[in-house]
TrEMBL record:
A single GO cellular-component term on record: cytoplasm
SUPFAM superfamilies xref list: GroES-like (SSF50129), NAD(P)-binding Rossmann-fold domains (SSF51735)
SMART domains: PKS_ER
One MF annotation (Gene Ontology) recorded for this entry: crotonyl-CoA reductase activity
Protein name: Crotonyl-CoA carboxylase/reductase
Domain of life: Bacteria
Quaternary state and interactors: Homotetramer.
Keywords, in A-Z order: Acetylation, Cytoplasm, NADP, RNA-binding
Subcellular localization: Cytoplasm
Native species: Phytohabitans suffuscus
A Pfam entry, by short name: ADH_zinc_N
InterPro entries, A to Z: ADH-like_C, ADH-like_N, Crot_CoA_red, ER, GroES-like_sf, NAD(P)-bd_dom_sf, Quin_OxRdtase/zeta-crystal_CS, Zinc-ADH_QOR/CCCR
Domain Enoyl reductase (ER) per the UniProt entry, residue ranges: 33-401
């Protein structure tokens, strides 16, 4: 007889797949504050298709994308999927995690039942014409974010992923640390090393917004690893201390400035001059941190609307501002004179391809990059973790929740 479901923390017998599972679920009627939007429910275990893998989730990472999913804005992810023909009226989020391969679908040959894996957060159609023609799968028209644009994410006892989403779990890490580094780590890796010729070189000065956040914590370490000089921006003393511990050459406290947001109208000379004065003062703090009158060759962006004008102004001649998000808004102003006269590059960047995921995983496994796990919750606390992120009250680093791992700190399981 097929087992109906497992209680949280109850590990199945090898090969046993229950028909239902606990998952942290968002429904449209609960869209709003993340702490209320997620609720643990029993749902059917999804089927495993060709080229796919069923993973028993031990732990999952908490990321900003499911803050947006919980709010139902700017995209109603459930309605968007339903428009594409998906019948399910709910969302199971979670775009990274760690677990044990529990079953493999037809044609899967790269992983085996029992493998310990970490899961990456983007999927694509490997048979798509653009991929077959050689484009980076992250640039394929078929690319979508698992556990955000796609359903059946990591906040569930079982998850179905495409085989190439599985990467070897660094053996030295607990389940929850392994679940927490890949999304931010691989995204920062691509931002800093994926856009030649603007890759971090020894001696390059790099400005990192939100240095104590998930992305920022990874970015500081990657810049150091490649010989660059990371300068972090934060908004509290303990966050500044975290950045310095990770290897930041200096920290700028954004509370000392008030020129954030959209640029003043170009015809308002007084307002423009006031803005420029603040931006120059910010630049002087950058020089002090670097120890020389040097501008950042790369600026790692994600706040968006509040900070892009400063990023574009400060970026070195022929340097790059590379952006992967818009936490503070999407209507960001660029004074085009700085863009063309100084020949700067404004580059969009989105998660990472398989090679980039492997590269950051190898750095973590080798002990070169700390996953910076800052908080571990339970499945019942998925909403709380996202709420802290939304309110910007989370501790410095990355956040995770235990799913089937019976307790924190476990590196293996008897199952
Ligand atoms: N496209 C992708 O593949 C991808 C991947 C990962 C993340 N992202 C996006 O990147 C953003 C950050 O992600 P994360 O995981 O690093 O989040 P996080 O852990 O919450 O860190 C973001 C940091 O940004 C800083 N911040 C908040 N408001 C700010 C403001 N008004 N001005 C400047 N800095 C501000 C905060 O630090 P301080 O208050 O200390 O300054 C915060 O710690 C999110 O929007 C997320 O969706 C995109």
């Amino acid at each position: 007889m097929t087992l109906d479901h497992l209680e949280p923390g109850q590990l199945p017998a090898p090969g046993e797949v229950p028909s239902r599972m606990y998952a942290s679920v968002i429904r449209p009627e609960r869209y709003g504050a993340p702490v209320d939007a997620f609720r643990t429910e029993l749902v059917d275990v999804p089927p495993v298709g060709p080229g796919q893998v069923l993973v028993m989730m031990m732990a999952a990472g908490v990321n900003y994308n499911n803050v947006w999913a919980a709010l139902g804005k700017p995209v109603d992810v459930i309605a968007a999927r339903q428009r594409r023909g998906d019948p399910f009226p709910f969302h199971i989020g979670g775009s990274e995690g760690a677990g044990v391969v529990w079953a493999v679908g037809e044609g899967s040959s790269q992983v085996r039942v029992g493998d310990h894996v970490v899961l990456s957060g983007c999927r694509w159609d490997e048979s798509a014409a653009d991929i077959r023609a050689g484009v980076d799968p992250m640039a394929s028209t078929t690319q979508r974010v698992w556990g955000y644009e796609e359903n059946w994410g990591a906040f569930a006892q079982f998850a179905v992923v495409d085989e190439y989403q599985c990467h070897p779990k660094p053996a030295n890490l607990s389940w929850e640390a392994a679940a927490a580094y890949l999304l931010t780590g691989a995204t920062a890796y691509r931002q800093l090393l994926g856009w030649p010729p603007h890759t971090v070189r020894p001696g390059d000065a790099v400005l990192i917004w939100g240095g104590s956040g998930g992305l920022g914590s990874m970015a500081i370490q990657i810049v150091r690893e490649y010989g660059g000089i990371p300068v972090a921006v934060t908004s509290s003393d303990d966050r500044a201390a975290h950045c310095l511990r990770l290897g930041a050459a200096g920290v700028i406290d954004r509370r000392e400035f008030d020129h954030w947001g959209r640029l003043p109208d170009i015809s308002d000379e007084v307002a423009v001059n006031t803005w420029l004065k603040e931006a120059r003062r910010f630049g002087q703090r950058f020089w002090e941190a670097v120890g020389a009158r040097r501008a950042p060759r790369i600026v790692l962006e994600h706040p968006g609307q509040d900070t892009i004008p400063t990023s574009m102004y400060l970026c070195d001649t022929a340097g790059m501002v590379v952006i992967c998000g818009g936490t503070t808004g999407y209507n960001a102003d660029v004074d085009l004179r700085f863009l063309w006269m100084r020949q700067k590059r404004l580059q969009g960047s989105h998660f990472a391809n398989v090679a980039e995921c492997r590269a950051i995983t190898q750095l973590v496994a080798a002990g070169r990059i700390d996953p910076c796990l800052a908080w571990t919750g339970t499945m019942e606390q998925v909403g709380e973790g996202h709420q802290m992120m939304h309110d910007n009250t989370h501790p410095p680093g990355n956040l995770a929740v235990l799913i089937n791992a019976p307790r924190p700190g476990m590196t293996t399981t008897e199952a």
